[in-house]
Each structure stands twice: as structure tokens, then as C-alpha cells.
Write the C-alpha cells for this entry.
Amino acid sequence: MKARSALCPLPARIAVLGLTLAVLCGCASRPPSQAVEALPARPASQAVDPLASWNDGPAKQAILEFVADVTNESGAHYVPPAERIATVDNDGTLWVESPLPTQLLFALDRVKALAPSHPEWKTTQPFQAVLEGDHAALAASGKKGIEEIVMVTHVGMTTDEFERIVVDWLAANKHPELKRPYTECVYQPMLELLAYLRANGFKTFIASGGGVEFMRPFTERVYGIPPEQVVGSSIETKFEMRDGKPVLVREPKLFFLNDKEGKPVGIQKFIGRRPIAAFGNSDGDLQMLQWGAVGDGRRLGLIVNHDDGTREYDYAHGSKLQSVDKILDAAGPAGWTVVSMKNDWNRIFPSE
Amino acid sequence: MKARSALCPLPARIAVLGLTLAVLCGCASRPPSQAVEALPARPASQAVDPLASWNDGPAKQAILEFVADVTNESGAHYVPPAERIATVDNDGTLWVESPLPTQLLFALDRVKALAPSHPEWKTTQPFQAVLEGDHAALAASGKKGIEEIVMVTHVGMTTDEFERIVVDWLAANKHPELKRPYTECVYQPMLELLAYLRANGFKTFIASGGGVEFMRPFTERVYGIPPEQVVGSSIETKFEMRDGKPVLVREPKLFFLNDKEGKPVGIQKFIGRRPIAAFGNSDGDLQMLQWGAVGDGRRLGLIVNHDDGTREYDYAHGSKLQSVDKILDAAGPAGWTVVSMKNDWNRIFPSE
């Protein structure tokens, strides 16, 4: 995924933020009225299927064959458990990223929460635009405005304080269109895939463009992925002893952008092993799939394609927010599996 | 530990490199003739003791009581397994760092190995000094010279190529004074401590000033710590597709220095959980112990003090290479345990 929830001014993010602004003006391809459509409960006969939310078809088959191959000790493609590393994008691959990435919605909400301490924001852009819900004015504030919003809302506090803010926000807020907590806007088939991999000796990691400290507070509970297996973008922090107690203070400077070419770089730096399975959904994941799912030995590359405008969102051929051309073009020659949310998944969300 | 095996020019390293140069001129406090002195084999009665190489005493007692407390589900200090994180320094805490840190010896050896491709080095400092074993000339080349040596030997290749170089070097070389492979110059009591913690549900991490890609090739085999649980200093890498194959190329620029204030910063960035146990041996570990072993709840801070000039090296009060004043001064008020290698360990190395 692209690191749309900007952590810091950075040239590489200009295009992404521009697209985000376009979306702020209302470009979601999915009408809110279709937000929640429950599917029938799964028949009991599927209860033992670890990938029950996956319809039979080439995508499910590719997963099953890959896992069978790398775990078959007498086979040609056997991989020892220690080397069974899977890296998975977050936004758009594990949870919903429309109409805006969750971390950007968090930043906008934080402006509202902090407003009482900043009376000057009532007459200062881009904050005035956020407080008044003036999307046109917010868009007019441009990349600089969005960056200012993200920066103000993400730095200055300790890492412990930031974690508490994230936890509280996730507990108190719901997705504006799906009308359920953000942590329930996760894809049930992907939860099953992660669990299935772990049951087969894999270590599952997130490799996201999103902020690592925004994800870590919920990844263990929601995805079964502990904080130490989350790789993401991050800002600088500074160690201090305050009244005899150690703290890390979040500073207004980017440390690492885990997106595009940064994803394999981040995977090597933070994990130190090359994955043999990599899952993403957009062009920001291309290099991660090249690193994890191209090369010697048996590998699995999987791309979640958002083609279900009824149950989720339709941007199968990209959107103003998200480009997918490069990764979809690469899929065929590389032998990666493109997952149709519409056809390959009989359930989208856990609560269905 | 200090990040003495410099990865890149950096002001913070000047003092360290200065000390390293002093040591290059011959300041080791341990005569080579005392290199290997075998101890009697352990009596069979100790076979079941998971900390058999630790003598009974306050250090061993502190470890046993800490582990008993945090694993006692009905006790006041219980810590769930997921939060049992221990971070351990490498140089001087898990393996020998005298007379020079292993990674610096590696860099010097690499100059010799690469010399045939660099005929100009025969008459160019600091390389000429390395090739001729001229310690005085090497010291005269200063910080800049050492940095040049480290840079030339650590960058330009892919991450896979560098790993192969490290693996081959470790297999082919022995410690100049202890006369055994570097990976056998590790402290048996610390191996036992790591295994004991893991047997009690801990996840053990290395947090070292050394280069992370220098350590990862051997940490799993030697310490039982997999690559993804090694935090260290690192340089920038660049992702490329070469002839359809993905590579990461090591670039001549520092990415992160995991030393002093950088240790808690790195622990939070790479692990994302605060440790409850932290072990080090010098002032470069002070902030890591403050982060992991100061605060609410039961914590264990442990400092390996090198006071055994007979079996290892004596720099109990610091050396030109290593300062220990700050961490030893902090130990008492913080309640950290100072381990005397001489008195608390009945074995130093696995081969004894």
C-alpha cells in the first residue's frame, strides 16, 4: 500500500497526497447505502476448512498447493519452518482503505479532539477546514496542509501516550460508511490465510506503508501478529529520562518510509530474512512481491483485487487514491495470484 | 556496547574510534599466553541446573528470582508470555570484544583479502598500513582511516553477497589470542541464561551497536536467536532488479546507529515492545538498561563485568577501548545486578 497517511514532509509522497485530496472531495466508488450486506452463515460442512471464506477456485488452490509443497519434507520444494516468512501489506490487503486510509481519518479526528487547546485553529487553515468539514478548503490547502495535519497529530507525545491515543480512538470510532469499528473492517479470508500459514509453521509479518506505531496497538488482537512482527513507516524518536522514568518522544522527522522500493529494504532491515510469500493490493506492493515472490524455490505472490463494489469497494483498475496497473501487469509473467474479492471470497468481513 | 566497528562516518563515533586506534597500538590488558585455560568438567550433579555455569551467589539468585516472579501466574509480578521480552548486547556481553571488536578484525582481514584487486593499496594509506601490519601508521591514519577501511569492506555488494563473505570469514578464522573460532568465543553462562529465559516463555533479542548484517548470519546457530530478533546498526540499502532477479545493494551511508540513546530508540522501532530484562556490559548499554530495567513491574538489569584477566580480559574499571563508569555508577541505585566474570561464572567458554 502507499503510505498515504503521511508521517512527515517527503517529496515521494506528493502524488499520493494529491490523490488523497482528490478523494477528500468525494471520489469513492461505493455508495454508502450499500455499506453492510450480510451474507448467509457458513454451512456447518465448511467448519473444518481453514480457508472457509475462500471459494474453491484458482486462488484458493494456489494457496493450498504452495503450503503443501513447502511443508512436504520429502518434496523438492521443502522449506524449513525457520525460513517460512510471509509478509503482508495492511491497508487494502488486511483491512479497508476506502474512502480514505484509516490513519488519515484518525489524523482528521485528532484535529477535532485537539481543537479546544488550539483556539487559533478556528481561523487557521488547514485546521479550520477540518473543523468545519470543508472538504474544498481542505483540498485547497494541498499537500502542505495534509502534512501539517498529520504532523501535528502524530508527534510531540511519548510513544506510550501515542499508543493510548490510538487504542482509545479505535475503541471509540466506527468506519464512516461500513458503520462498524475499524478493527472489524478487516478481511475474514485474509485472517484465515494468516492463521493457516501460522498453523503450517510460518511466521507472519506485516509490511505496510502505514505508521508502525499506529498499527502495533491492534495487530496482535486483530490479526494475531505481535508488535515485533510489524514493519511500517516511522518517525524519529528521542530517548529521555523524565523524573527518573524513561520515555521516547515522537519527533517531527521521518525515519523510514516503508513503501515501494522501501518495502524490500524495510523487510531486510527489520526482519533480515527474505520472505517466500508476499501479499499486497496495489503498486506500492510491487517491489515487496518482487523481493518475496520472485526467485529460486517455491514462492507465493498474491494480490487482493478490489472488484466488489457491493460488499466492499470497486477499484479493480485503480482509483484516484490507488494505482494497481504495475502490479497487475507484473502478476501474469511472475506467476502471482490475483484474488477477486467478488469471486474468490464468500465472506468479506468477520461479522458477516 | 559501543558501535566500534564503524559503518559510516559519524561524529558520535569519533571518541570510540579514537579509543580503537589506541588499542590497535597494543593496550590489551590480557597477555596472550593466558589465552586458553580449561576448567574442570562440571560435576554430574549440576547437569540439571539450567544455569550450571553460574556459581551460587547474588547474580544467579537475582536471575532465578526474577524468572520465578514474572512466571508465577498467581503472583503480583506475573507477566504474560507475550510481554516477556529480553534484549541483550552482543560485543562484550555475549562474545569477546577484546583486543578489538570482531567486526573491526573482520574489516582489517577483508582489506587483505581484497588487496589483489587493489594494487594501489600497496602505497596508499590506510590500506598500506593494514597490509604491512603497521599499527603505528594505521593509528596515524586516524578516525578517517578506520572509517575508510570499514566502508570499503562493508559496502558495494548485495546483502546476499555480504552474508556469504561473513559466513566464510567466520568459518575460516580464529580469534588472534584465544585461538578458537570467533563463534566459540561466546560466554557459556550467557548462552545458558538465554536458553533459560526462552524455556520460561521469553523472546530473546540482541540489541547491539554492531552491524546487524554482520551478526544475523550466526546468531541463530550460536545464540539460538533468529535473524528477525537481531537489532543492530545498519547502512542504507537499495532495491534493484538485476536480470530479472531482485537484489538489495549495500550503500555507503549510515541508516541507523544502535548505540547509547539509540538502543532504546532501536528497540522500540524494531521490536515495538519495551523489554522487562536488559543485559549489557558498558556505557553504550546504559540507556538500554534504563529503558528495559527501570520502571513499573518486575525487571532485570544485568551488567557483565570483565574482571577476569586470567580466563578472559580484565577491564573491570574500563579501558581505552571501553568505558563502564556510567553504567556501573547507575547499577546500585537502579538495582541492577553486576556480574563478576571471575566470581560468578565457573565456566567462560563452551569448550571449557
Remarks:
- Chain A touches chain B at residues 82, 85, 159, 203, 205, 212-213, 216, 220, 226-230, 234, 236-239, 241, 244-246, 248, 255, 261-262, 264-265, 268-273, 287, 290-291, 294-295 (CB under 8 Å).
- The CA atoms of residues 283 and 325 of chain A lie 7 Å apart.
- The first strand of chain A starts at residue 85 and ends at 88.
- Residues 54-99+156-344 of chain A form a domain with the Rossmann fold fold (CATH 3.40.50.1000).
